[in-house]
Specification:
alpha/beta, globular, 9 strands, 6-stranded mixed β-sheet, 3-stranded parallel β-sheet, 2-enoyl-CoA Hydratase, Chain A, domain 1, 240 residues
Length: 240
């Protein structure tokens, strides 16, 4: 379901459950992989991808959600929402750089997973990313909207969350949703090179994680009411 291996300072996390649809069991396996990463110290970077050549992650496990008793392998339905959201927040604040290699379709929860990484790279020749909640008749929860708002440029945000636009790799790159692109064959190497470039930033993981908390955590710097001029002129009030 989730495979994790480390080569030198790079962690490779592979989702290996077909379309990689999300249920509680999938969330907990992913969380266990993060436990292993967080036990380490020193430089490192994470590369997340899928073993399936067509799907990165095709969103929620809808069969399980509609009939959890009939698909008991998916785990406890009642705790899914809270545990999934917590996992996404945990990925955002991972104490090492994180790179997502979107090698196939990423819909809904799969798109959220991609956005929770520091860097997104996408297959340019095939595949879409899409927040498809509107198409499924779901409202997007506020925490998820906050993620989209922070990670997607303003001019593309409304199209993504309200109009359920399907972004190709080329379009997502042009819109600034992903930071790199390549063919299916090129994507792994592009991701590894980026991971190797960024891994030294996590020499002090505590500091790397703390800055992420300032960006995306409680009272995040990008959400403060004050403008930068006021904060700069009164910097002692805003010391870490």
């Amino acid at each position: 379901m989730i495979e994790l291996e480390k080569k030198e300072s790079i962690y490779h996390l592979y989702m290996n459950a077909g379309e990689n649809r999300w249920n509680t069991s999938f969330v907990r396996k992913f969380s266990e992989a993060l436990d292993e990463i967080e036990k380490d110290e020193g430089p490192g970077a994470l590369v997340t991808s899928s073993k399936d050549p067509k799907f990165f992650s095709n969103g929620l496990d809808l069969d399980w959600m509609q009939d959890p008793e009939g698909h008991s392998e998916g785990g406890d339905r009642e705790v899914f929402g809270e545990e999934f959201m917590y996992l996404m927040g945990r990925i955002i604040t991972l104490p090492i750089p994180s790179i997502c290699a979107i090698n196939g379709h990423a819909f809904g929860a799969g798109f959220m997973l991609a956005l929770s990484h520091d860097i997104r790279l996408m297959r340019e020749d095939r595949g879409f990313i899409c927040a498809n909640e509107m198409q499924l008749g779901f409202k997007i929860p506020r925490p998820e909207l906050a993620l989209f708002r922070h990670k997607i440029p303003a001019n593309s945000f409304f199209e993504t969350v309200q109009l359920s636009k399907r972004w190709t790799g080329e379009a997502a790159f042009a819109a600034g949703i992903v930071q790199g692109k390549g063919s299916f064959e090129e994507l792994p190497d592009i991701a590894i090179k980026k991971a190797e470039e960024l891994a030294p930033l996590a020499k002090d993981r505590k500091h790397y994680a703390a800055q992420k908390e300032m960006l995306y955590g409680e009272n995040a710097a990008i959400n403060l009411n004050h403008g930068p001029a006021h904060m700069l002129k009164n910097s002692k009030k805003f010391e870490v």
